[in-house]
Sequence to fold (323 residues):
Amino acid sequence: MENARTAVIKLFILAYFFEYSKGIDVSFRRYCKRSFLGDQDCYFKVREHWDFLKFRKWLDNLDPLGDVSLRITCTEGGSLYIPWPMRARNLKRLEIKNCLLRGYFDEHDVKSRYPDSLEVRSIVNSVTEVSLLDWVNVVKSMQSEKSYTCGQETLVRSIVSNNTYSFLNIPKLPGSKMLELLSEISDSFREKVRTQPFECHYKNLLYLENSNNPSLGKHFMEDLTLHSHYPKLRALNLSSNRLTYLPIELKKWYRSFPKLVYMDLSKNDLKTFSFLDPKRFGRNLGLHVNLRNNDISSPPRDFYRYSYRSVPISVDLRGNPIR
Fold:
Protein backbone atom coordinates (compact mmCIF):
# COMPACT_ATOMS: atom_id res chain seq x y z
CA MET A 1 0.00 0.00 0.00
CA GLU A 2 2.83 2.35 0.92
CA ASN A 3 4.61 1.60 -2.36
CA ALA A 4 1.45 2.39 -4.34
CA ARG A 5 1.05 5.72 -2.53
CA THR A 6 4.69 6.56 -3.18
CA ALA A 7 4.29 5.72 -6.87
CA VAL A 8 1.26 8.03 -7.17
CA ILE A 9 3.17 10.88 -5.51
CA LYS A 10 6.10 10.37 -7.87
CA LEU A 11 3.80 10.41 -10.90
CA PHE A 12 2.19 13.63 -9.65
CA ILE A 13 5.60 15.27 -9.19
CA LEU A 14 6.77 14.10 -12.63
CA ALA A 15 3.57 15.44 -14.25
CA TYR A 16 4.02 18.76 -12.46
CA PHE A 17 7.60 19.23 -13.66
CA PHE A 18 6.71 18.00 -17.17
CA GLU A 19 4.04 20.70 -17.48
CA TYR A 20 6.36 23.28 -15.94
CA SER A 21 9.09 22.40 -18.47
CA LYS A 22 6.60 23.00 -21.32
CA GLY A 23 5.86 26.48 -20.02
CA ILE A 24 2.39 25.55 -18.76
CA ASP A 25 1.03 27.67 -15.92
CA VAL A 26 0.63 24.91 -13.35
CA SER A 27 -1.07 27.27 -10.89
CA PHE A 28 -4.40 26.67 -12.69
CA ARG A 29 -4.22 22.97 -11.83
CA ARG A 30 -4.87 23.66 -8.16
CA TYR A 31 -8.34 24.96 -8.99
CA CYS A 32 -9.37 22.27 -11.46
CA LYS A 33 -10.55 18.72 -10.89
CA ARG A 34 -9.40 16.41 -13.66
CA SER A 35 -11.27 13.24 -14.59
CA PHE A 36 -9.70 10.06 -15.93
CA LEU A 37 -10.72 11.09 -19.46
CA GLY A 38 -9.16 14.54 -19.14
CA ASP A 39 -12.30 16.55 -18.31
CA GLN A 40 -11.51 19.69 -16.31
CA ASP A 41 -13.97 21.10 -13.75
CA CYS A 42 -12.52 24.46 -12.66
CA TYR A 43 -13.65 26.92 -10.01
CA PHE A 44 -11.97 30.25 -9.25
CA LYS A 45 -12.79 32.79 -6.57
CA VAL A 46 -11.40 36.09 -7.82
CA ARG A 47 -10.47 38.81 -5.35
CA GLU A 48 -8.44 41.06 -7.67
CA HIS A 49 -7.91 40.32 -11.38
CA TRP A 50 -8.13 37.13 -13.47
CA ASP A 51 -7.05 36.68 -17.10
CA PHE A 52 -9.14 34.37 -19.29
CA LEU A 53 -6.47 34.41 -22.02
CA LYS A 54 -3.89 32.87 -19.68
CA PHE A 55 -6.38 30.18 -18.75
CA ARG A 56 -7.06 29.59 -22.46
CA LYS A 57 -3.33 29.21 -23.11
CA TRP A 58 -3.09 26.72 -20.25
CA LEU A 59 -5.86 24.64 -21.84
CA ASP A 60 -4.03 24.75 -25.19
CA ASN A 61 -1.08 22.91 -23.67
CA LEU A 62 -3.04 20.13 -21.98
CA ASP A 63 -3.01 16.71 -23.61
CA PRO A 64 -5.33 14.92 -23.46
CA LEU A 65 -8.10 17.43 -22.78
CA GLY A 66 -11.74 16.46 -22.37
CA ASP A 67 -14.68 18.78 -21.72
CA VAL A 68 -13.98 21.93 -19.69
CA SER A 69 -16.30 23.54 -17.14
CA LEU A 70 -15.30 26.97 -15.80
CA ARG A 71 -17.02 28.67 -12.86
CA ILE A 72 -15.86 32.07 -11.60
CA THR A 73 -17.17 34.04 -8.62
CA CYS A 74 -15.75 37.46 -7.79
CA THR A 75 -15.59 39.10 -4.41
CA GLU A 76 -15.92 42.90 -4.14
CA GLY A 77 -13.37 44.49 -6.49
CA GLY A 78 -12.79 41.31 -8.50
CA SER A 79 -12.52 41.60 -12.29
CA LEU A 80 -12.02 39.37 -15.33
CA TYR A 81 -10.27 40.09 -18.60
CA ILE A 82 -12.46 38.05 -20.93
CA PRO A 83 -13.03 39.24 -24.53
CA TRP A 84 -16.28 38.33 -26.26
CA PRO A 85 -17.27 35.68 -27.38
CA MET A 86 -15.33 33.86 -24.65
CA ARG A 87 -14.00 30.94 -26.66
CA ALA A 88 -11.45 28.42 -25.43
CA ARG A 89 -10.47 24.89 -26.32
CA ASN A 90 -13.19 22.39 -25.35
CA LEU A 91 -14.93 24.91 -23.08
CA LYS A 92 -18.46 23.57 -22.60
CA ARG A 93 -19.73 25.42 -19.55
CA LEU A 94 -19.02 28.97 -18.36
CA GLU A 95 -20.58 30.51 -15.25
CA ILE A 96 -19.66 34.01 -14.02
CA LYS A 97 -21.04 35.72 -10.90
CA ASN A 98 -20.50 39.13 -9.30
CA CYS A 99 -17.66 40.21 -11.62
CA LEU A 100 -16.47 43.23 -13.57
CA LEU A 101 -15.88 42.02 -17.16
CA ARG A 102 -13.17 43.77 -19.15
CA GLY A 103 -11.88 43.59 -22.73
CA TYR A 104 -15.28 43.09 -24.39
CA PHE A 105 -14.30 44.41 -27.85
CA ASP A 106 -10.66 43.27 -27.86
CA GLU A 107 -11.21 40.37 -30.28
CA HIS A 108 -13.89 41.91 -32.50
CA ASP A 109 -11.64 41.85 -35.59
CA VAL A 110 -9.88 38.57 -34.81
CA LYS A 111 -10.85 35.39 -36.62
CA SER A 112 -11.00 32.84 -33.84
CA ARG A 113 -8.88 29.71 -34.11
CA TYR A 114 -11.17 28.05 -31.58
CA PRO A 115 -14.35 26.39 -32.84
CA ASP A 116 -17.67 26.94 -31.10
CA SER A 117 -17.94 24.61 -28.12
CA LEU A 118 -19.89 26.38 -25.37
CA GLU A 119 -23.18 24.75 -24.36
CA VAL A 120 -24.00 26.61 -21.13
CA ARG A 121 -23.23 30.29 -20.51
CA SER A 122 -24.41 32.10 -17.39
CA ILE A 123 -23.47 35.68 -16.47
CA VAL A 124 -25.17 36.87 -13.30
CA ASN A 125 -24.90 40.02 -11.15
CA SER A 126 -22.03 41.39 -13.23
CA VAL A 127 -20.92 44.58 -14.97
CA THR A 128 -19.51 44.68 -18.50
CA GLU A 129 -16.96 47.44 -18.95
CA VAL A 130 -17.14 49.10 -22.38
CA SER A 131 -14.68 51.64 -23.73
CA LEU A 132 -16.63 54.27 -25.65
CA LEU A 133 -13.59 54.83 -27.88
CA ASP A 134 -13.39 51.11 -28.71
CA TRP A 135 -17.10 51.06 -29.45
CA VAL A 136 -16.75 53.99 -31.86
CA ASN A 137 -13.83 52.26 -33.62
CA VAL A 138 -15.83 49.05 -33.95
CA VAL A 139 -18.73 50.97 -35.49
CA LYS A 140 -16.41 52.78 -37.92
CA SER A 141 -14.60 49.67 -39.13
CA MET A 142 -17.50 47.23 -38.72
CA GLN A 143 -15.49 44.32 -40.09
CA SER A 144 -16.51 41.96 -37.32
CA GLU A 145 -16.24 38.28 -38.08
CA LYS A 146 -19.38 36.12 -38.07
CA SER A 147 -17.81 34.18 -35.22
CA TYR A 148 -17.68 37.40 -33.18
CA THR A 149 -21.10 38.82 -34.03
CA CYS A 150 -23.00 35.56 -33.56
CA GLY A 151 -21.03 34.42 -30.56
CA GLN A 152 -21.17 30.70 -29.90
CA GLU A 153 -23.88 29.02 -31.95
CA THR A 154 -23.48 25.75 -30.02
CA LEU A 155 -25.25 27.12 -26.94
CA VAL A 156 -28.00 25.04 -25.35
CA ARG A 157 -28.64 27.33 -22.38
CA SER A 158 -27.86 31.06 -22.21
CA ILE A 159 -28.47 33.20 -19.11
CA VAL A 160 -27.76 36.89 -18.60
CA SER A 161 -29.31 38.27 -15.42
CA ASN A 162 -28.75 41.58 -13.65
CA ASN A 163 -25.87 42.41 -15.99
CA THR A 164 -25.24 46.12 -16.57
CA TYR A 165 -22.71 48.22 -18.50
CA SER A 166 -20.06 50.68 -17.38
CA PHE A 167 -18.64 53.10 -19.98
CA LEU A 168 -15.01 54.26 -20.09
CA ASN A 169 -13.29 57.07 -22.01
CA ILE A 170 -16.40 59.21 -21.95
CA PRO A 171 -15.95 62.76 -23.28
CA LYS A 172 -16.92 65.61 -20.98
CA LEU A 173 -20.36 66.56 -22.24
CA PRO A 174 -23.58 67.75 -20.60
CA GLY A 175 -25.91 64.92 -19.65
CA SER A 176 -28.32 65.44 -22.56
CA LYS A 177 -25.46 65.62 -25.09
CA MET A 178 -23.98 62.44 -23.68
CA LEU A 179 -27.26 60.62 -24.15
CA GLU A 180 -27.46 61.92 -27.73
CA LEU A 181 -23.94 60.67 -28.45
CA LEU A 182 -24.67 57.21 -27.05
CA SER A 183 -27.89 57.08 -29.05
CA GLU A 184 -26.08 58.05 -32.27
CA ILE A 185 -23.38 55.41 -31.76
CA SER A 186 -26.00 52.80 -30.96
CA ASP A 187 -28.09 53.67 -34.02
CA SER A 188 -25.01 53.54 -36.29
CA PHE A 189 -24.05 50.17 -34.83
CA ARG A 190 -27.56 48.80 -35.35
CA GLU A 191 -27.75 50.05 -38.93
CA LYS A 192 -24.55 48.24 -39.85
CA VAL A 193 -25.68 45.09 -38.06
CA ARG A 194 -28.95 45.19 -40.02
CA THR A 195 -26.99 44.85 -43.27
CA GLN A 196 -24.58 42.15 -42.11
CA PRO A 197 -24.02 39.53 -44.84
CA PHE A 198 -24.54 36.45 -42.64
CA GLU A 199 -27.09 34.74 -40.40
CA CYS A 200 -26.69 33.29 -36.91
CA HIS A 201 -28.13 29.81 -36.33
CA TYR A 202 -28.61 28.70 -32.74
CA LYS A 203 -29.69 25.20 -33.66
CA ASN A 204 -29.34 23.73 -30.16
CA LEU A 205 -30.54 26.59 -27.96
CA LEU A 206 -33.38 25.51 -25.66
CA TYR A 207 -33.37 28.19 -22.94
CA LEU A 208 -32.67 31.90 -23.39
CA GLU A 209 -32.77 34.38 -20.52
CA ASN A 210 -32.12 38.11 -20.38
CA SER A 211 -33.68 39.18 -17.11
CA ASN A 212 -33.44 41.91 -14.49
CA ASN A 213 -31.94 44.27 -17.05
CA PRO A 214 -33.77 47.63 -17.05
CA SER A 215 -31.28 49.09 -19.56
CA LEU A 216 -32.52 46.99 -22.49
CA GLY A 217 -32.73 49.14 -25.61
CA LYS A 218 -36.04 49.79 -27.33
CA HIS A 219 -34.97 47.62 -30.27
CA PHE A 220 -33.67 44.71 -28.21
CA MET A 221 -36.08 42.14 -29.69
CA GLU A 222 -35.32 43.22 -33.25
CA ASP A 223 -31.61 42.93 -32.48
CA LEU A 224 -32.21 39.49 -31.00
CA THR A 225 -34.14 38.11 -33.97
CA LEU A 226 -33.32 40.04 -37.16
CA HIS A 227 -30.47 37.85 -38.42
CA SER A 228 -30.80 35.02 -35.91
CA HIS A 229 -32.67 31.72 -35.91
CA TYR A 230 -33.85 29.71 -32.90
CA PRO A 231 -35.49 26.58 -34.32
CA LYS A 232 -35.56 24.63 -31.03
CA LEU A 233 -35.97 27.31 -28.35
CA ARG A 234 -38.44 26.13 -25.70
CA ALA A 235 -38.26 28.83 -23.03
CA LEU A 236 -37.68 32.60 -23.19
CA ASN A 237 -37.23 34.55 -19.95
CA LEU A 238 -37.50 38.35 -20.13
CA SER A 239 -38.68 38.96 -16.58
CA SER A 240 -37.89 42.02 -14.43
CA ASN A 241 -36.84 44.25 -17.33
CA ARG A 242 -39.27 47.16 -16.79
CA LEU A 243 -40.82 46.55 -20.20
CA THR A 244 -43.65 49.00 -20.82
CA TYR A 245 -44.89 47.52 -24.09
CA LEU A 246 -44.88 44.22 -25.94
CA PRO A 247 -42.53 44.23 -28.97
CA ILE A 248 -44.00 42.97 -32.24
CA GLU A 249 -41.46 40.14 -32.24
CA LEU A 250 -43.14 38.79 -29.09
CA LYS A 251 -46.66 39.32 -30.40
CA LYS A 252 -45.60 37.24 -33.41
CA TRP A 253 -43.46 34.87 -31.32
CA TYR A 254 -43.99 31.94 -33.70
CA ARG A 255 -41.92 33.57 -36.45
CA SER A 256 -38.68 33.58 -34.48
CA PHE A 257 -39.39 30.87 -31.91
CA PRO A 258 -41.53 28.16 -33.57
CA LYS A 259 -41.00 25.63 -30.76
CA LEU A 260 -41.55 28.02 -27.84
CA VAL A 261 -43.72 26.64 -25.02
CA TYR A 262 -42.92 29.07 -22.17
CA MET A 263 -42.49 32.84 -22.16
CA ASP A 264 -41.73 34.65 -18.90
CA LEU A 265 -42.68 38.33 -18.93
CA SER A 266 -43.34 38.61 -15.21
CA LYS A 267 -42.33 41.58 -13.04
CA ASN A 268 -42.36 44.13 -15.86
CA ASP A 269 -44.44 47.30 -16.35
CA LEU A 270 -46.77 46.06 -19.09
CA LYS A 271 -50.23 47.62 -19.16
CA THR A 272 -51.59 45.67 -22.12
CA PHE A 273 -50.76 42.53 -24.08
CA SER A 274 -51.80 40.83 -27.28
CA PHE A 275 -50.51 37.72 -29.05
CA LEU A 276 -51.39 37.09 -32.67
CA ASP A 277 -52.81 33.80 -33.88
CA PRO A 278 -50.33 31.91 -36.10
CA LYS A 279 -53.26 29.97 -37.63
CA ARG A 280 -52.42 26.87 -39.69
CA PHE A 281 -49.30 26.33 -37.58
CA GLY A 282 -48.07 22.74 -37.59
CA ARG A 283 -47.58 21.85 -33.91
CA ASN A 284 -49.61 20.34 -31.09
CA LEU A 285 -48.02 21.98 -28.05
CA GLY A 286 -49.49 25.15 -26.59
CA LEU A 287 -47.74 28.24 -25.22
CA HIS A 288 -47.82 29.37 -21.58
CA VAL A 289 -47.12 33.05 -20.90
CA ASN A 290 -46.23 34.26 -17.42
CA LEU A 291 -47.49 37.84 -17.04
CA ARG A 292 -47.60 37.90 -13.25
CA ASN A 293 -46.91 41.16 -11.40
CA ASN A 294 -47.31 43.63 -14.25
CA ASP A 295 -49.72 46.60 -14.46
CA ILE A 296 -52.43 45.02 -16.61
CA SER A 297 -55.97 46.15 -15.76
CA SER A 298 -57.86 44.23 -18.44
CA PRO A 299 -57.10 41.44 -20.96
CA PRO A 300 -57.52 41.94 -24.73
CA ARG A 301 -60.99 41.56 -26.26
CA ASP A 302 -60.16 38.27 -27.96
CA PHE A 303 -58.62 36.80 -24.80
CA TYR A 304 -61.38 34.20 -24.48
CA ARG A 305 -60.29 32.74 -27.83
CA TYR A 306 -56.66 32.18 -26.84
CA SER A 307 -57.28 28.63 -25.62
CA TYR A 308 -59.02 27.68 -28.88
CA ARG A 309 -56.35 28.81 -31.30
CA SER A 310 -54.25 26.57 -33.53
CA VAL A 311 -51.60 26.98 -30.83
CA PRO A 312 -53.50 27.35 -27.54
CA ILE A 313 -52.17 30.10 -25.28
CA SER A 314 -52.59 30.11 -21.51
CA VAL A 315 -51.75 33.28 -19.57
CA ASP A 316 -50.96 33.72 -15.87
CA LEU A 317 -52.24 37.16 -14.82
CA ARG A 318 -51.91 36.87 -11.06
CA GLY A 319 -50.58 39.96 -9.31
CA ASN A 320 -52.13 42.38 -11.85
CA PRO A 321 -54.78 45.03 -11.04
CA ILE A 322 -57.45 43.25 -13.12
CA ARG A 323 -60.81 45.00 -12.90
Q: What stands out?
A: The helical segments are 2-21, 52-60, 132-141, 146-149, 175-194, 220-225, 248-251, 253-256.
